[in-house]
Amino acid sequence: MSREYLHEIFCSIQPHRNKFFKLGSNFNVATSQCHEETDSNFIQHMAINSAEALPICSKYFPKISELTLHDKDIIQRKSYLMDDLRRIFSLVQLTKLTMNNIFYELNIFINLLQLTPNLHTVTWISIKDTPKDLLSLQESKAYQLVSKQNQVKTIIIQGDYTKKMMEVLIHLCPQVQNISLGISDRSLDATVHYLLSEINDGTLHLFSLCIRIASPHWIKYWKMIIQVKLLIQAFTYGGEINCQKETRFLSFQSNKSYL
């Protein structure tokens, strides 16, 4: 494999100016020109496409604030992952995190929450499948601790989800103020019902709930449900419903800010 090819894969163009750095399965410090050329002082976002590359990354990235974990096999290194990450950047500085599948990575997420006090935005690709060890994780001291201390304010679900796993995330990140969901044929209505009921009960303080790519019919239906059943009660004091038809988003927004 040529150095030019590695350079294209790992560092893109002008690596000394690039704010994004990717570790992939073919990463090799000894042969990768881009690893040497990359000025780690500029990198703010690291994407890890292969956990196998972590132990051989010799650079330290002092300004990393965003981390993306794309490798589904990263669970194989969970015993070493926190040490690997802390060796190449400061977890305390992390403010944004993207993870792949909650079925495999919930335990890793809990561990990361313990070490990232400034984390405020979390993105999941999928929270559809329930982890086999969910009950034991929820009963663990680590889970109880991070649910009281983490400062996650925004949760974004890019792909599949279920109401059950959304509940898990809400209980784990009770300070959340902004949630963004896509369409789910089986789980969307149940999830929205759950979130709004939590708002009415005073256990959830959402500033914004956005449903991406919602149809005009769905938006009209939910607007009627909210008005008729008074599910908008939590927003009656200075709040509003905002249906953005041009972008096909349905958003529930309160004028009161909890930031």
Automatic annotation (TrEMBL):
<protein>
    <submittedName>
        <fullName>Uncharacterized protein</fullName>
    </submittedName>
</protein>
